[in-house]
Amino acid sequence: MNDQEIILELIDQLLKSVETELSPLSAAIILATDLNIANDSRDFAKKFGLAHALVIRECVNLEEEVGAISIVKRDDRTQRLYYQLTDLGKEWANLVSNPNSAA
């Protein structure tokens, strides 16, 4: 199994593990943050081949509507968002990395 297949499998597991309705992109942002693959919107968009605007919109939703990430810095020039997982985001990521833990 290559890295891409592993990430897709983890996304699928996370989507099945949480009661909140998450998009696959939201799950990917949470997992990429937890796995230190990407901690800002521009880096995530580049690594996953997505439009930066799409990732920004999803990050804002994850912060304001879901509460899984906290945006800690905004770069006005590049519109890059720097974020970290909240306790909820960490709990969800832990469901995948440690499936025996209770939510």
Describe this protein's structure.
This protein has a single domain (3-97), classed as Winged helix-like DNA-binding domain superfamily/Winged helix DNA-binding domain (Arc Repressor Mutant, subunit A, Orthogonal Bundle), CATH 1.10.10.10. It is built from five helices and two strands; from the N terminus they run ααααββα. The chain has helices at 3-17, 24-34, 41-48, 52-66, 87-97; strands spanning 69-74, 81-85. Helix 1 crosses helix 2. The radius of gyration is 13 Å and the shape is globular.
Short summary:
By secondary structure, the chain is mostly helical. It has 5 helices and 2 strands.
Question: SSE layout and pairings?
Answer:
Elements: H1 3-17, H2 24-34, H3 41-48, H4 52-66, E1 69-74, E2 81-85, H5 87-97
Antiparallel strand pairs: 1-2
Helix pairs in contact: 1-2, 1-5, 3-4
